[in-house]
Design brief:
Layout (H helix, E strand, L loop, with lengths): L3 E4 L9 H16 L3 E4 L12 H13 L5 E2 L15 H13 L3 E4 L3 H13 L5 H4 L10 E4 L7 E5 L3 E5 L8 E3 L7 H11 L4 E5 L6 H10 L6 E5 L2 E2 L15 H6 L4 H9 L14 H7 L10 E2 L2 H14 L2 H16 L5 H17 L6 H5 L11 H8 L4 H13 L6 H15 L3 H13 L7 H8 L1 H17 L1
Parallel strand pairs: 1-2, 2-3, 9-10, 11-12
Antiparallel strand pairs: 4-5, 5-8, 6-7
Helix pairs in contact: 1-10, 6-7, 9-11, 12-13, 13-19, 16-17, 16-18, 16-20, 17-18, 17-19, 18-19
This protein binds one RNA strand of 76 nucleotides through α4, β7, β8, α6 and β12.
RNA sequence: GGCCCCGUCGUCCAGUGGUCUAGGACGCCGGCCUUUCAAGCCGGAAACGCCAGUUCGAACCUGGUCGGGGCUGCCA
């Protein structure tokens, strides 16, 4: 059997990391088995669906490297992969289910139905026992699937094992709304059948709906897919991951300076492990050994601390040239303009030192903007902390003079000059260097000082120190 | 309430009856290094929810209990 899996994100919002993780596992499963990975868009929620979110979904998946073989934008034997384009097909299925006796029209008052449901619940009976006694429905209501009252639904979940749901725990559920739009259950199952999906790998929140999908598929005369329900992702408070836990959209991480490899890796270790106490691995490594059997059953907390650490690991593991390429847009963003080729050369010279220090690409720009601005902005906290100490003026004045005569103006010679300064003045290295650091970079946090000075150049270094001196005097 | 799922350090994982005085990672604490910040190195605290049972032996098997979560919509 050739594996065919799909993900079915809905376009009701920006793609969520939970959905992305499901996508990731589907992708790993498909690639490991040499199968087909399909992306379909669930846009049956007329109220909330918005095609604008499609770009977000598509570009997010591409960014992570989750390529798909069929689906929206790719085309394929089934034409389109947006459910809104297949409404006719769903209606046709709904009608044929009615004709075959698997479903029935139901135009009765929702409030009355709710009342009956509550009544049945109290008495421990199946709601259908009352609902079916109502007047024969007209033909313009919704269509409900008629759950056979006797048989239990059993299936083997690849992650969770044997599942059994008694028939009376499944209500007659709506498959076609009165406005003619199919519900998720119908559209999803019809698609899975039509597209020949072999394995449905999705979040555990859909585990309870699985009997409905199996019943539907059987009623359509098809073999249900094999199901595998992934553990849910929780926020730090142990509740279902949601907006209140900070960033839950993939886009937020992308814009937050995370590397796709790191996000991929991190998502992959949430609920799955490659084994042997190893947790840093590449996509090909994961593809090679991925199995659903190794997926864990318990929910995982989305711990951004660990993601941050992992991102730092990935940044440091990058080749320098690669790092420079990836950092470019972030530098441009921080500086506020593109750089000249000479300036890029300056950035390249100091890039390795920044690379070691960054956990996020967003940290790169702020660390180097001092090299590319005409007017330096001082971080007030740093200024207070460093420039209000004794004899800072003397140190700065001395430093300016010594740097004036350093030749050539390079890291080693600068270091020699400044260390001599510290020794001559009888002060510690920190006391001597920090004021200079703040003077030239505007902050007490920066790349290493001597390299920073060398990258800045003698002229600008000296004039910044003098500028700081003047600012000191005017305080 | 009903149905269903889950339960190893704060967090993510390893562990599938003896090799577990439970291993790794993040985070945390302490130290080293050090011109800041990082990184790096060394060390430390930290868990099998609980109770029975099966067994010579249980983190691993069974039952119960407690706890957490999901579903229970003409949302997905």
């Amino acid at each position: 059997m050739t594996v065919r899996v799909r993900i079915a994100p809905s376009d009701t919002g920006s793609i969520h990391v939970g959905n992305v993780r499901s996508a990731l596992f589907n992708w790993l499963f498909a690639r490991h088995n040499g199968g087909t990975f399909i992306v379909r868009i669930d846009d049956t929620d007329l109220e909330r669906s918005d095609p604008a979110h499609l770009d977000d979904i598509v570009s997010g998946l591409r960014w992570l490297g989750l390529d798909w073989d069929e689906g929206v934008e790719v085309g394929g034997p089934h034409g389109t992969y947006k459910q809104s384009d297949r409404f006719d097909r769903y209606r046709q299925v709904a009608m044929s289910l009615v004709e075959a006796g698997h479903a029935y029209f139901d135009d009765r008052d929702p409030d009355v139905l709710e009342g009956l449901r509550v009544k049945a619940q109290k008495e421990g009976k199946h709601p259908g026992t009352y609902i079916r006694r109502l007047d024969p429905p007209a033909t313009d209501g919704s269509i409900r699937f008629s759950v056979p009252p006797d048989a239990a639904v059993t299936f083997t979940d690849t992650v969770r094992g044997e599942m059994r749901f008694e028939a009376d725990s499944v209500d007659d559920f709506v498959i076609l709304r009165s406005n003619g739009v199919p519900t998720y259950h119908l559209a999803s199952t019809v698609d899975d059948v039509d597209y020949g999906i072999t394995h449905v790998i999705r979040g555990e929140d859909l585990l309870s709906s699985t009997p409905k999908h199996i019943l539907l598929a059987r009623a359509m005369g098809a073999d249900p897919a094999i199901y595998a329900h992934l553990p849910l992702l929780f926020g730090p408070d142990g509740k279902k991951l949601s907006k209140r836990h900070g960033d839950t959209s993939l886009a937020a991480y992308r814009q937050g300076g995370y590397l796709p490899e790191a996000v991929f890796n991190f998502l992959a270790i949430l609920g799955w492990s490659i084994g042997e106490d190893r947790e840093i691995f590449t996509a090909p490594d994961a593809v090679e050994v991925f199995t659903l059997e190794r997926v864990s059953k318990n929910p995982a907390v989305f711990d951004t601390d660990k993601l941050l650490w992992m991102n730092g690991e990935y940044i440091r593991a990058l080749g320098v040239d690669d790092f420079i390429e990836r950092a470019r847009p972030w530098v441009v963003d921080s500086v506020g303009r593109d750089l000249s080729s000479e300036e890029w050369a300056v950035f390249s010279s100091i890039a390795p030192l920044v690379q070691e220090r960054a956990k996020l690409l967003t940290e790169v720009g702020p660390q180097v903007t001092f090299l590319f601005v005409d007017v330096l902005e001082y971080d007030e906290g740093s200024w207070e902390k460093v420039m209000t100490k004794d004899d800072v003026g003397g140190v700065l004045d001395d430093a300016a003079q010594r740097l004036e005569s350093v030749a050539p103006f390079e890291t080693e010679t600068i270091e020699a000059a400044l260390r001599a300064l510290a020794e001559d003045r009888g002060i510690g290295a920190g006391k001597a260097f920090q004021p200079v650091r703040v003077a030239i970079t505007g902050s007490s946090i920066s790349p290493p000082l001597f390299e920073s000075l060398a990258a800045l150049g003698r002229e600008r270094s000296v004039s910044r120190i003098l500028g700081a001196l003047a600012r000191l005097g005017s305080d």
